[in-house]
Amino acid sequence: MKLKRIVLGVTGGVAAYKAAELARLLVKDGIDVQVVMSAAARHFVGAATFQAITGHPVFSDLWDERVVDTPPDPALPAGSPPEGAKKHLGRPGAFLVSGMAHIDLTRGADAILVAPASADFLAKLVHGRADDLLSTLCLARDCPLLVAPAMNRQMWEAPATRRNVAQLSSDGVTVLGPDSGEQACGEVGFGRMLEPDALLDALEARFQPKRFAGLKVVITAGPTFEAIDAVRGLTNPSSGKMGYAVARAALEAGAEVTLISGRTCLPPPRDARFMPVVSAQDMLTVVESVVDDADIFISVAAVADYYVLNPSEQKIKKDAHILTLELAPNPDILAGISSREKPPFCVGFAAESENIEEYAELKRRRKHLPLIVANDVKEAVGSDSVRLILLDEAGRHVLEKADKQTQARLLVAHIAELYNTRYQ
């Protein structure tokens, strides 16, 4: 589901300044954002900031005037205003009306996201209080409600707050965060609002179809590193971006995800079970320790084909012009898993530099895979976008070039379709 319209609620707290960046990211993502602020929020950030970012007036009071375009009514002359309205001087055909904002502002909205949500506001929601515009529209909504708590560590840990959060979750409200870190009061701990980019990811994830609900998915990502000596090694330029994107997409789809990754500079997805490794042998050991319970195994990692037979424990000095290394082949992790008597649903990746589809299809057949994902290694490695070719028993399916997160979601949808056909 592509989000189209969001009501962004902002309550009083130091983290209110992050809501401006969140609004910017939402607008950049093509989402129409209507901001509603509590009275306390205006002490931390000005309404003009949000209006400039979203292009919409900001509302705080139940009786704030707002602009409406009157729908045609055959019973009235053309352009007749709603009852009690007055003409908008700067916009022909539009009118200024007061009242009922708690209903009008949420009409057609895909969700309400309150960020930051103060301890006081969480308590209001639990008890159904409606003493200002934001709490009223949350009570009168017919769309999902998400809250991003932000408060002092002691406030977050207080029994009353814990009870309130548990009740909100029980009531169907999605609670995003909080995170742990330094706080404005000088404390360190949980209570910090999630960063805007994490909130955007969480919001989008909330509305992805749950195609993997109840499934366990194991994913490998990133490069492996095969030691030559204490400081040098054989590796490749894989960034891990595609594997991490697939892990996020699987989480969004409702899966229980284990991400086994070589060294990258990427933060692992928040809700994944993360297991870092270094070498191909390390990766094999970890994969074998968890894959027995997996429903789906997706091998995205760029595993080194060879390892050094006798790596030096010390740094090799540059005394000779020629250094000879004796290499041996690494185990084929994917082939080993797919050849089991009862393997999980296995998906492979083939990064090729020539004859891309031909070589990928040969790899798929050799390893008995229901699906392999082919791409041009010259375009894919390290980039933020990629063109993918999905090869399965039915033929080829091209995913034209797009960002890797979009491609990962499309890939997950395709895997789910194949998986359901095979096992259900």
Q: State the distance separating the first and last CA atoms.
A: 24 Å
Give me the secondary-structure category.
alpha/beta
Query: How many helical elements?
Result: 14
Structural domain count: 3
Outline the biggest β-sheet. 8 strands, mixed
What does the model show?
This protein has three domains: 5-63 and 99-206, Flavin prenyltransferase-like (Rossmann fold, 3-Layer(aba) Sandwich); 70-97, no CATH class; 216-423, 3-Layer(aba) Sandwich (Rossmann fold). The two termini are 24 Å apart. The protein has helices at 16-28, 47-54, 101-104, 119-127, 133-139, 153-157, 159-170, 196-206, 241-252, 280-290, 333-338, 356-366, 377-380, 404-423, and strands at residues 5-10, 32-37, 66-69, 86-87, 94-97, 111-117, 145-149, 174-175, 179-182, 188-192, 216-221, 226-227, 233-234, 256-261, 273-276, 296-299, 306-308, 327-329, 345-352, 371-376, 385-392, 395-403. It is built from 14 helices and 22 strands. The strands form six sheets. An eight-stranded mixed sheet has the order 15-14-11-16-19-20-21-22, sandwiched between helices. Strands 2-1-6-7-8 form a five-stranded parallel sheet, sandwiched between helices. The mean pLDDT is 87.
